[in-house]
Records
---
Amino acid sequence: MTKRILCALLVLCALCSCALAEELPDSITMKAGESLSFSLPFSGSWDSDAPDVAYAEGDTVHALSEGWAQLVLMDGENEQTVDVEVTDAVPAVIREAIRIALSEWEEVGEKRLDKSKRGNKYIKWWGYENIGWCGAFVGYCLDTAGVPLEPTDTWRKVKPHEGGIPYSLREAGVPKLRTGFTNMERITDVPRPGYLIIFGAKGYYEDVHVGMITDVSDRGNGVYQIFTVEGNIGGSTVKRYSFLYDSLAEDKTKNMSYLPEEAWTQEGVYYEGPRQTKSGGKKYNWYVTALCQTWQ
């Protein structure tokens, strides 16, 4: 009996040793948004020459955005360098949708578009005139790129969508989009390129507008810099915006803020925090209501 117990303990120890984290390598390739834990050669503090690309805390390396970063683990006597390559996790078809959205922005050039099928291809794509066409704009871009779309008017009964593959809904109404993505269990607080971003206005409506996220930069502590491209905005045209979004804000209606002016670096982008809806002589500040996962 003693020998059997000893053998069992030896087998258990072997299994435990196999389950130990991989030793820290000299180089790592990771996907954006991925985190990996390693067995460290010694305890120490980390430094990163590109913390917006990758950084480390404790025994875990975090990849944020595409690019290269060199991480250094130090304890005063020892030092180990780790080269991290972060590849783009965004599916190719979603990247194509982003490219199309940006090319539409360049083509429109902030020209005011009417709300008929004659001069507005996004409304022509949707098939109904005289609508707020922000949802039709993002739908047109996703559809043109080849992203599969749930058929129109199925938003109430669409089921959870497993697998995380690129997917959206053929809808233009903002409340319908949010309900559909909620039913598919594809609502999140963490922004990624290609996600749809739904805005609400405090004291007005939760679903007033939708755009597409084109770029995201993690600023730490749950704060992200977001770039968007949006249709039916600023006088019925297409514009780009950038702002800070606090995914951990205690008051959700205050989760948008302005970037410092020194960060206003891209031409043609409106660096605005909480925009406003004006109605009945009142002004209602915008906030981010939901992020819809067109991919996972």
---
Amino acid sequence: MILKPITSEKAVKLVDLDNTLIFKVEKKETKETIKKEVEKIFNVKVDKVRTLIRQNKKYAYVKFAKANPAIDIATKLGMI
């Protein structure tokens, strides 16, 4: 389950440079379930999912396909 998007300076920079959004997710989630959930919620194509566990919290770096700009999704979420 996706908990919330991360809106730090680094996250906003990744939106512009790498077409990537960062989400805080539950620790038990796998890359495949994160990918399916993001595709279902935002109706977009996900290219790649990377995960990071830091301080007992899990973050998902979701890279979108070129046809789906991450800035559009970030605008819908109110990040930008």
